[in-house]
Amino acid sequence: MPDAATPPEDRGAVVRDSIGVGVATGLYGTSFGAVAVASGLSVAQTCVLSLLMFTGASQFSMVGVFAAGGSPAAASATALLLGSRNTLYGLRVAPLLGWNGVRRVGAAHLLIDESTAMSITRPTPELARVGFLATGLSIFVLWNAFTLVGAVAGEALGDPRAYGLDAAVGAAFLALLWPRLADRRNQLVALLAVVVALGLVPVTAAGVPVLAAGGVALLVGVLSRRPDPTEFPEAPR
Question: How many domains does the structure of the chain reveal?
Answer without folding.
Answer: 1
